[in-house]
Amino acid sequence: MPENAVVTLRYGPYSAVGLSVEHRTYRLQGLLAVLAKDGHKIILQEIEDWNLVELVVNEETVFQCDIQDLEFGGDGQLDPLCEEARIAVLDAF
After folding, report:
1. Distance between CA 80 and CA 14 in Å, rounded?
2. Three-state SS at 75
3. 17 CB contacts (<8 Å, ≥6 apart)?
4. pTM for this prediction
5. Secondary structure (DSSP) of 2-48
6. What is the pLDDT of residues 43-65, one digit of tens each?
């Protein structure tokens, strides 16, 4: 995939530390940083599937994981899931 791709980041609600189930972007910060560093345009889209994160490129889901498996905050450099997602976007057709 060429750089500067349009990536739709779809994310569902989750419960954090006993709080109510809501859409939150705290755990997406590292993923957003890694994708932005590669020059991709990211579109955030809330979905209703609990705990789910999906990356969609050219209408194809190229990566998905549980949102609670992503590290909280940070730049994503040390999160192996962020690197896996980055590679999946780069390998997308």
Report:
1. 21
2. coil
3. none
4. 0.90
5. -SS-EEEEEE--EE-TTPPEE---GGGHHHHHHHHHTT-EEEEEE-S
6. 999 999 999 999 999 999 999 99
